[in-house]
Structures are given as C-alpha cells and as structure tokens.
Amino acid sequence: MAYPVVHGVTIPIDSQEVSPTIWAALTKGDYEAREVHLVTHAVQPNDRVLELGTGLGVVTSIMARVEGTYIWSFDANPSTAHLAARVIEANGHENVELTTGVLTAGTPKRFKFYIRRDLWMSSVYEHQGPYERTLDVISGDIDQFVAKHAINVVVMDIEGAEHGLLIDAALPGVERVFVELHDHLYGLIGVREIMAALAAKGFAYDPRASSGACLVFTRSEVTREYQLEQVNAR
C-alpha cells in the first residue's frame, strides 16, 4: 500500500482511520501546510521543544529533523496519539517523547475533552460543534514540566486552550512560543488578553516568523538566521 507523503513525512495510516476532511488534506499534501512552513523558522538547532497538540505527528516530525533538537509532545486523545506514534516511528525519529495527556497552568485540573471526527477539532470546548465522545482528563503543570526538562521552545495547537494557558503560565526559561490562535472560540478580546499576558512575561510578537493565526513570540534579542535570510531577500 502506498501511504500519503506530506511535506516529506510518510503517513502510515489509511483512509478509514481519519475523517474524510483530514484524508483529503493528507492526499492533497496540504495538511497543516502553514504550520509546517512557519515552525521551521521558530525551531532552531539544539532546541528543547515542548509540543502541545501532537495531532498526526506531522509538525512533530518536521521539528524532529532539525539538528540537535529534542521534543516532548502531548496529545489528549489516545487514538490520535496512537496514530502520531506510528508516524513518528515510521519516519525514524528517536528524538521525540510522545505522551497521552494534557499540560495546563497551575495545579492539576479535571475537565472534559470532546472528541470529534475531525481530530483537529477535538477540544475542551463543548460548544465548538458535535462530538463523538468525551474523555475525563487530569492535567499536569506546564511550568513544572518546562523547568524539569529545560524547555526553551513551546509549540502549541490546542484548539482554544492556549487562552488560559498562555495567560496563567510563567514559562520559565522559554525563549520562543509558537501558537495557533483560535479566536472563533474566545474572540478578539481573548486574543488581546493573550498578547498582553505574553508581553507582561517579556515576550514580543515576531512578525517575521508569523502569519495569520499562527504566531511566534520571542524573548530573545538575538538576530536569528531566518531573520537575516528575509532581510537579504528584500
């Protein structure tokens, strides 16, 4: 069987294991295309990356190609994490630790996670749309995890949960945050709250590595290679 190859990542799954919408994106080769393009600018050699929202492991695999990186990745849905583990293994990445679970700010929290056919729509928001089932999830503390593993980059696509997390987490030692915003869930007021909270923590919005709802925030004042490339191209 010929499996889809997306952004150079082999996807060893078949059409029955994902929704028709996701299968179409995989076969067309445009699955998470914007995220893949931008995350290659956000993640640099030797970064220690915490990824929240593994999905199918495509972005994970792209980051794992960067020399010297190590990635800890979390997904709340065991079924999705199983598919992602298959993708990561098929592409030979040994620098990834994949965990089924959730990290939030502060003490552990219990909440419902709503599983939807389009896996990228699964979230903690019931009102986001029809769902197939729910999971009871207990979170871990993101700041404890970041400190324990000396994380310097956080990458997240967590369907709205970024709002509370980025407002409340301290993110000690983190230099860069790559986040996909979901303003349809918390509105432009929520976007403003996220931007203000990150600014208060010392992060600046980096327009050179951001596009649309996919944004990079940085605490680093170092001129990075991707910035020089863009300046020289003008």
Please describe the structure with a list of short key phrases separated by commas or semicolons.
two-stranded antiparallel ribbon, 234 residues, disordered C terminus, Rossmann fold, 13 strands, 22% strand, globular, seven-stranded mixed sheet, alpha/beta, single chain
Q: What's the number of helices?
A: 8
Unreliable segments (pLDDT under 50, ≥5 consecutive)?
230-234
Give the strand line-up of the largest sheet.
5-4-3-10-11-13-12
Average pLDDT number: 92
Q: What's the CATH H-level homologous superfamily? A: Vaccinia Virus protein VP39
One letter per element, helices H and strands E, the order comes to EEHHEHEHEEEEEHEHEHEEH
* CATH class division: Alpha Beta
Shape: globular
Give the second-level CATH assignment, the architecture: 3-Layer(aba) Sandwich
Helix % is 25-40%
| Beta-strand percentage range | 15-25%
Structural class: alpha/beta
- The domain count comes to 1
Radius of gyration: 17 Å
How many β-strand stretches?
13
Keywords: Methyltransferase, Transferase
Protein name: FkbM family methyltransferase
Organism: Phyllobacterium myrsinacearum
GO molecular function, one term: methyltransferase activity
